[in-house]
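Single-chain item
Fold in token form
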Amino acid sequence: MDQRGCGRSVPSAAAPDCDLSQNTTEHLIADLEALREHLGIQAWLVSGVSWGSTLALAYARRSRLPGHRRGAP
């Protein structure tokens, strides 16, 4: 997936009227969870490159779903 404001997602962060206050780590984590629910995935491996790996770790740390985290305290 392309995160908010990146790649083919809309609106683009480069757009002059883009509201970056709606592009926080918490918003991105909520987007990942919404995607998981939309696809009906019970458990998944989330990974990324550079910022994406940091976001994947943040998502795992905040996951409130029992049994959905492996390797995270």
About this structure: Residues 24 and 48 are 17 Å apart (CA to CA). Helices lie at 25-39, 51-62. The first helix runs from residue 25 to 39.
